[in-house]
Design brief:
single chain; 210 residues; alpha+beta; NADH Oxidase; 2 domains; four-stranded antiparallel beta sheet; 9 helices; 45% helix; Nitroreductase-like; oxidoreductase; Nitroreductase
Length: 210
């Protein structure tokens, strides 16, 4: 745990990446597995994660992401896209996955499936989309923590135009919406931000014990 805290102090929102340094395939697989194992409500994982390496696509995304250089300079670009208007199909697929993974007859899980449908499928579409978008933050957290453990830099981003990113990547055709972006790679030695002392609230200010 002491190393975990040490690595959390080491990480920061990298402003400049070294475009000459790339994440190894081995480390990339670890980051992907960390995302895959992330917690989510009901375990549904109501999102997809698009990993963009294609330089032409990233060049198109940069102008609609406030021109931030990390988009094109980082080793990899992760786009967390929530499922739009999630419904019974996704829940049925999840139930089937549970049954296959745990060796349980699907009919034994019907009650759980019906419970999820009663809580989720009936929600107004805007409320449902807001909920699935929030789930992507849990997956992002796992990416940030895993990257820090590997001494890989990562920058989470909300500063982009989702509709434009959806169009560039064809996400709307897949029933997806870009909710979050994270650039991942290695800090540039000239990135002054790495030398800034981390600023956080004190424990006394942040926590309330009841």
């Amino acid at each position: 745990m002491s190393n975990f805290i040490k690595h959390q102090n080491w990480r920061y929102a990298t402003k400049r990446f070294d475009a000459t340094k790339k994440i190894s395939n081995e480390d990339l697989e670890i980051l992907k597995e960390a995302i895959r194992l992330s917690s989510s409500s009901y375990g549904l994982q109501p999102y997809k994660v698009i990993i963009v390496e294609n330089p032409e696509l990233r060049a198109k995304i940069r102008p609609v992401a406030w021109g931030q250089s990390q988009i094109t300079e980082a080793s990899h670009l992760f786009v967390f896209a929530n499922i739009v208007n999630l419904g019974e199909r996704e829940i049925n697929n999840y139930i089937a996955n549970i049954a296959e993974t745990r060796g349980i007859p699907s009919e034994n899980l019907a009650g759980y499936g019906d419970f999820m449908k009663s809580k989720i499928a009936s929600l107004p579409e805007d409320v449902k989309n807001n909920w699935t978008a929030k789930q992507t933050y849990l997956a992002l957290g796992n990416l940030l923590n895993a990257a820090a453990e590997l001494q890989i830099d990562a920058t989470p981003m909300e500063g982009f135009e989702p509709e434009k990113v959806n169009e560039i990547l064809g996400l709307d055709k897949l029933g997806l919406n870009a909710a979050l972006i994270a650039t991942v790679g290695y800090r540039h030695e000239e990135d002054a931000s790495q030398h800034h002392i981390k600023v956080r609230k004190s424990k006394q200010e942040l926590f309330i014990n009841l």
